[in-house]
Amino acid sequence: MSIYIDPAVAASLRGYEMPEKLGFGTVMAPVMFRAVCQDGCWSRGELIPYAPLSLDPAAKVLHYAQSCFEGMKAYRTRDGGISLFRPERNAARMAHSAERLCMPPVPESLFMDGVRTVTAYCANLVPANSGESLYLRPFLMGTQADLAVSASTSYEFYVIASPSEAYHSGNMRLWVEREDSRAAIGGTGDAKVGGNYAASLLSIARLKQRGYDQSLWLNAGNRQSVDELSGMNFFAVIDAELHTPALNGSILEGITRESLIELARDLGYQVRECAIDIDELLRRVADGSCEEAFACGTAAIISPISVLGDGGENYQLASAPGPVAERLRQALLDIQEGRTEDRFGWMQPVEVISLD
Amino acid sequence: MSIYIDPAVAASLRGYEMPEKLGFGTVMAPVMFRAVCQDGCWSRGELIPYAPLSLDPAAKVLHYAQSCFEGMKAYRTRDGGISLFRPERNAARMAHSAERLCMPPVPESLFMDGVRTVTAYCANLVPANSGESLYLRPFLMGTQADLAVSASTSYEFYVIASPSEAYHSGNMRLWVEREDSRAAIGGTGDAKVGGNYAASLLSIARLKQRGYDQSLWLNAGNRQSVDELSGMNFFAVIDAELHTPALNGSILEGITRESLIELARDLGYQVRECAIDIDELLRRVADGSCEEAFACGTAAIISPISVLGDGGENYQLASAPGPVAERLRQALLDIQEGRTEDRFGWMQPVEVISLD
Ligand SMILES: Cc1ncc(COP(=O)(O)O)c(C=O)c1O
Ligand SMILES: Cc1ncc(COP(=O)(O)O)c(C=O)c1O
């Protein structure tokens, strides 16, 4: 199906002035992609100016959080081109998230049309310094105006974009969250849906007051093994091997996680996907056999962890940023920014649209 | 603070034609109440025509489900007046829900202004037959346009209303949900927030295909004791005593539940708030010592349960609707509709506003 390009798009892009300070996910590109689904039938996609959405006050998304999203980046590569990183993995994950909340999955071709079209038209907004990118945010939501607790009959899919700086989280101080849970066993933890993030806001606010940066979530089933952070997966280097929580149904299947596992094995590291007992981990940090830990995700790629706080104790990681994190980060960014050969076939170049 | 009444409100109300078929939560009243909160400061409330909301595509509520709501009813009483049922309990619960998601609680006076003003102006839309009502839906959401996973700096509070028929659920066939979870221990189960409802949609869709009406959720911690339904609390009559799950942090503190406990005790029933083991409950249904079970909530007040389905088995309740459920339902509705003395002080009359 062809994509409709609103005639106002050109003027929106031409009149756009990029602010000097970008931040991350704060500045919005002046165009967006949109498609609607009514009773299971998808409209064709359209590229339109970025503008407020009109939503009925009784729309399901506002009351019952029937919505899911993705986060991905378009990178400016060394040759001046623009590439997406494994976008089909985001398409697949978004389909999974949609199904968990009874929403019609966005067809892969429509998803790809969305991210490619926005990227192609916003080529001039992809910043050029290493670590910078155009952050893409596809999202899907139930829009039917009806207060019954049931799946919506109508949906809207959007792709918005945000020219963003490198996401600097520095050395993170994590707080081991033993009180609150983020996602239940049998819940929505392996789907990228709003409710998981809503549930984590209070913990984040609390720990910031105590001088920490992020929560380290434990599994809601046993409250003993490490799940992940609110928006990143977790890795520890123990006795020179990489350990990361196995996909247990309550953590998000991160695309950075998956890529780092492949890359690390390729670089000769042992990688174990397993349950990580929190008390064992803290012991390992204390006795020095865990020297290094880091979190990973699309935004920051890899963020080193310097401290794990638990109750009254602070467990200091010996090495932050550690050599393994540094090496993996550089290796992945080199692929994403086109400085080394894309030997895993992860990068998808996007044909840039020139307005003239 | 005085409430601003938009001059267009009168025309909206005068021009409104009530559809013949109401349903429940489907037909919307033509006006709504609105207030906004910026950096912790609340605007004054305003009554405005019901109209689509304008939301930035990056608004937090759409991505991170930072929203909560209430459900309550305005009843037409026997003397022709209009009353709200325990509205201050809804105000308190909404404040609790807001805090769980790091949102500024709506001040009780603003909440009361909202539900009273909408009710007062919509007096003509409160249907008059027993069981019918004006269903009120206050809700609060984070509107800041920013993709960071953090609490919004701006919020909007609305009260919308829906003239509704009696909510007839008949004798319900429940499915014991042993696979999915609705809310984790330490999660958001005791708050009325969107994510809980999103997480329950898939289970509801699955069980409808198998010929059931609603999920019976088990506690996500032990997956063994009964929590509640997706939108109602649970009661069983065992050996002539009422049993209902204790408030354990993962069930919603229902206002109907609380009122029924008080009413039942007043009528001479023993009421136990305790953990209800699902296997024990099914045994009791099978051997006849649990004759009756029902669910309760604002919408249906009391819905009798006729079957508990678990795996391949259907456990039939001997008596559905049962005498206890019938008696309690009538006693509560008699208070709500002003046919008996309001000896608990639950009803709050609303001064009706006449447009002429
Ligand atoms: C909860 C959660 N875990 C992990 C990740 C990392 O996933 P990805 O590497 O695909 O960005 C994210 C998103 O970035 C997330 O929101
Ligand atoms: C999950 C849940 N449990 C219980 C109830 C019952 O609460 P109330 O009696 O206050 O309506 C509701 C809402 O109606 C609910 O959504």
TrEMBL record, chains A, B:
Gene3D superfamilies: 3.30.470.10, D-amino Acid Aminotransferase, subunit A, domain 2. It catalyses: L-leucine + 2-oxoglutarate = 4-methyl-2-oxopentanoate + L-glutamate; L-valine + 2-oxoglutarate = 3-methyl-2-oxobutanoate + L-glutamate; L-isoleucine + 2-oxoglutarate = (S)-3-methyl-2-oxopentanoate + L-glutamate. Keywords: Amino-acid biosynthesis, Aminotransferase, Branched-chain amino acid biosynthesis, Pyridoxal phosphate, Transferase. It comes from the Bacteria. Its cofactor is pyridoxal 5'-phosphate. PROSITE patterns: AA_TRANSFER_CLASS_4. InterPro entries: Aminotrans_IV, Aminotrans_IV_CS, Aminotransferase-like, B_amino_transII, BCAT-like_C, BCAT-like_N, BCAT_family. Pathway: Amino-acid biosynthesis; L-isoleucine biosynthesis; L-isoleucine from 2-oxobutanoate: step 4/4; Amino-acid biosynthesis; L-valine biosynthesis; L-valine from pyruvate: step 4/4; Amino-acid biosynthesis; L-leucine biosynthesis; L-leucine from 3-methyl-2-oxobutanoate: step 4/4. GO terms for molecular function: branched-chain-amino-acid transaminase activity. Its EC number is 2.6.1.42. Belongs to the class-IV pyridoxal-phosphate-dependent aminotransferase family. Acts on leucine, isoleucine and valine. NCBIfam families: ilvE_II (TIGR01123), PRK13357.1 (NF009897). This is Branched-chain-amino-acid aminotransferase.
